[in-house]
Design a protein that fits this description.
alpha+beta; Beta-Lactamase; 2 domains; five-stranded antiparallel sheet; 5 strands; elongated
């Protein structure tokens, strides 16, 4: 998708998600041919002409002012992440963001690798911006059955989520996990839409996974923080782990994810069993080649 149409596609998708009642308009009688708000309704709420708004959706207007963007964010009832995404798309459309000339580094610093060992038995790994698993402790690899069987450069949590046959049973709420991951990738794509690593992953998953293609077209966007995730693990049974995400300085978009459970709980006991199982196989930090 070109930058000139990305903003318009996002506006169309979000407009279709807003019901008239959400913005204080009557539903009216009869069947609406347009899902969500009509163009003229959104333009009126945002305080602009229908023609100007139509030009935004069509990609003919490429430099909306900050006041226009603020009005659209209010009219579309965007949350904080969606609002930031709208601004990022506007910057891309207007050519205000410089092109990236080099791919993000896949090299994981020795100190961060040591951190993965230090937090054991907590599962922990390092992700690149498109969720490539750049390094992982044995517990993390064991948490995702079959991940360790993939070549290092194929290990990617989104690829696992949508393409690995175990994933749908492993994640107790697979749909929520899928939506959350796709929403984050949307945010990454807005910041660097033509990046080879981003376009390659989106292209691969769009072709191989109808579910990814469906969720990608929703245009959800969000950046996840710490939360809980429940697994139905084939070795240790059901366990719910909380996880935190850390972004070390000078790591070119890398982030560290650490799972944990409260000591003395059944979930913590299950995590310890997972660590015991991980200890029965060869330790592998999962680092990818740096070349």
């Amino acid at each position: 998708m070109s930058e000139r149409t990305a903003l318009g596609e996002f506006l169309r998708a979000r407009r279709a998600r807003v019901r008239p009642a959400d913005v204080g308009l009557p539903e009216g009688t009869g069947r609406r041919r347009t899902p969500g708000l009509r163009r003229e309704e959104l333009a009126t709420i945002a305080g602009m002409s229908v023609d100007y708004y139509a030009r935004l959706e069509q990609g003919k207007e490429t430099r909306p002012s900050p006041s226009v963007l603020e009005a659209l964010a209010r009219a579309l009832t965007l949350d904080e992440d969606e609002h930031a995404h709208l601004l990022a798309l506007a910057d891309q459309t207007a050519g205000r963001v410089p092109r990236r000339t080099a791919p993000p580094s896949r090299t994981v610093r020795a100190g961060i690798r040591q951190l993965l060992e230090t937090v054991r038995p907590c599962p922990a790994y390092v992700l690149g911006r498109t969720n490539d698993v750049l390094a992982a402790n044995p517990e993390a690899l064991r948490l995702f059955p079959g991940m360790a069987d993939w070549p290092l450069r194929q290990r990617n949590t989104m690829r696992y989520l949508f393409l690995h046959p175990v994933a749908r049973e492993l994640f107790a709420n697979w749909e929520a996990a899928a939506r959350s991951n796709v929403a984050r990738l949307r945010a990454v794509a807005a910041a660097d839409p033509d990046a080879p690593d981003v376009t390659a992953l989106v292209g691969e998953l769009s072709v191989k996974s109808p579910d990814f293609a469906r969720l990608w077209q929703r245009y959800d966007v969000g950046v996840r923080g710490g939360e809980e995730k429940t697994f139905r693990h084939p070795e240790v049974g059901q366990l719910t782990l909380s996880y935190e995400v850390f972004v070390p300085v000078r790591t070119d978009g890398q982030r560290v994810v650490i799972y944990q459970a409260t000591p003395g709980t059944p979930d913590h006991d299950a995590m310890l069993l997972l660590a015991l199982a991980a200890g029965s196989v060869a330790g592998d930090l999962g680092g990818t080649p740096t070349g």
